[in-house]
Amino acid sequence: MNTPTLASDLNLCLCHSCGKSCDMSGLPLFCERCGAPLHARKTNSLSRSWAFLLASLVFYIPANVLPVMNTTMLGNGADSTIMSGVLDFWQHGAWDIALIIFIASIAVPGVKFAVLSLLLVTAQRGSYWARRERSRLYRFIELIGYWSMLDVIVVALVAALVKFHGLADIEPRVGILFFGLVVVFTMLSAMSFDPRLIWENPTQREVANGIASH
Questions:
Q1: C-beta atoms surrounding 14 within 10 Å
Q2: Quick one: 20 and 72 in the same domain?
Q3: What is its main location (predicted)?
Q4: Alpha-carbon Rg of the chain, whole angstroms?
Q5: pTM
Q6: Which domain holds residue 200?
Q7: Tens digits of per-residue pLDDT, 74-98?
Q8: pLDDT at residue 54 in the model
């Protein structure tokens, strides 16, 4: 069966900056168009992705345990965590805001943790299992990454609306900072992962790593 020629067989790679197809056979390895350094693969992709993912998991614990905002009504103040805030909005009839916060703060990070862990483990083992589906999962993670800051935005909007109407006072707490760090580190983990590792055999990976190290 005829197999298509790979870019690595022709010593070609795409520039990560401008997307130009560049020749990797000569030195120094810089893009002719924009001058960016060329890499056959993202440098230390798996190691950096694991590091960012583990850091985000560590920050996810205080993000859910510590309060994200403090609500003061008629002189009485109360701190709210992410989950207690979801329940409060739901009980007061604001089910749409509660649903947005739950999806953005609980469901989306959980899905990202699970999918990134799956991609990293299978890529590290050189698994042939469900390669097309794993590629789609990676594109899905990239897509939902743009909406990961919804919870932070919702807290800011609710605080602004409450203060505007003079009904109460809402102030952010340290938990929202940890949640922001979770979002940043999960995005960095997804950006550091090289999806081409899904399709590579271990021998092809060794060749690519050898080219990237020059």
A1: 15
A2: no
A3: membrane
A4: 22
A5: 0.73
A6: 42-212
A7: 556 677 777 877 787 788 777 777 7
A8: 95
